[in-house]
Amino acid sequence: MAQTRKISSDRPLMSINLRRYENPSTLAGRKLIRRICLSLGLLQPGDSRDVIVDVVDSFIRNKGKMKTLTDINNDVYKIREEYELDQIGISPSNILRQIRRLKELKIVMKMNGAYQLTENNFQDIFQKQIKRFIIEPTSERIEEYCNRLDELSEKMNKASMQKE
């Protein structure tokens, strides 16, 4: 009989989806920010609900500045207007949800009720935050699982050879 209760240990402590695309040398502006969001798993390929792109754009346009949720919401509205995009999905609750996702990936931080980028540029954000605190520990844990599996399979192989 199959086990039906959920096992809490199957919940990841952290997860990230990384995607590799072609060289970004021809991209700029919103298209480049969208590709970064796709590359970091913040946006799914073909997803038309892309307010996350505008939230990231708001932070980039305001590097080093602390922004309240209201400021970010207003920025997103203006950015979408600038690109002549629908205003769908820019409610404060959705913007806050997107900011939380950015916080999980250590792209933004919150201090005194306002938000800002964790580093001065995206290269530093990727190297110092995402790679260091998310990718490397995740990779190391996967290596631990692989080593444990190899140890157990080695023991099983020795045991089966002794039986022969």
List keywords for this structure.
164 residues; mainly alpha; Arc Repressor Mutant, subunit A; two-stranded antiparallel ribbon; 5% strand
Write structural notes for this entry.
The protein has 2 domains: 28-118, Arc Repressor Mutant, subunit A, CATH 1.10.10; 120-164. Helices cover 55% and strands 5% of the residues. The chain has helices at residues 29-39, 51-61, 69-82, 92-104, 122-163; strands at residues 108-111, 114-117. It is elongated and about 75 Å long. 20% of the residues are buried. The mean pLDDT is 89.
The CATH topology of the largest domain is Arc Repressor Mutant, subunit A
Low-confidence stretches: none
Percentage of β-strand residues: under 5%
Chain oligomer state: single chain
* Separation of the first and last Cα atoms: 33 Å
**The named CATH superfamily of the largest domain:** Winged helix-like DNA-binding domain superfamily/Winged helix DNA-binding domain
Q: What would the principal axes of the Cα set say about the shape?
A: elongated
Tally of distinct domains: 2
> Mind describing the biggest β-sheet?
2 strands, antiparallel
Structure summary, number of beta strands = 2
**Rg from alpha-carbon coordinates:** 21 Å
Helix amount, in percent?
55-70%
CATH class of the largest domain: Mainly Alpha
Sketch the topology as an H/E string, one letter per element: HHHHEEH
Number of DSSP helices?
5
Task: Name the CATH architecture of the largest domain.
Answer: Orthogonal Bundle
